[in-house]
Design brief:
By secondary structure, the chain is α+β, with helices and mostly antiparallel strands. It has 6 helices and 6 strands; from the N terminus they run αααααββββββα. The protein has helices at 2-10, 12-40, 62-73, 80-90, 93-102, 175-189; strands spanning 105-106, 111-112, 132-138, 141-146, 154-161, 164-170. The chain is elongated. 15% of the residues are buried.
Amino acid sequence: MDFFKILFEKKPFQVISLIFITISFLIVFSIFFILDVKEEQPNVVDKGEKTNVIADNTYINAKDMLFDFYSQYLSSSLSETERHELIKKSCTQNMLKTLDILYSFDDEEGFIIGIDYDPFLNAQDIFPIENIKIENIEGNKYSILWNETNSNIVTLNVIQDNNNWKIDSIDMDNLEQIKKDVIDYWNKKGKENPKRFSE
């Protein structure tokens, strides 16, 4: 204690400078430590009823929305109920009405009216995800490729719906024919196509 007292009396400026530098270093170190801890934390999802389901995020970039959508859609831990909710949050009403057609099913007959594969994957099964490649073709049109060994490329069109990017349509060569066949089927039965996605 006597040493610091003598030092402070003889060289007060140097002591004050040393204290200031030490405190500044501790503050800067603390800030970097806190930021580093935040970066290392994984994206934790609340383990409630909506586990693994995409949040009501507002996306500035369409590519970010598509990446989040497919990252969760291809997750093996996602239940069918959660996947259905994910679709409804990520698509426009126009797309949801198209999905009503594509997923058309006659519950009474146990008969598939629409398609027997997943239009978001252009495949019947959900593959284990290794990587997702999303490319902007032109305008609001994007190609989706997951896993480099998979050749089932999907082409989507997105639009801004209520200031948020959403999937508005999927490019399919035979889409119009599928729509016609589904509508004709339900017209013959005198019923409307069940709404499984749209409101």
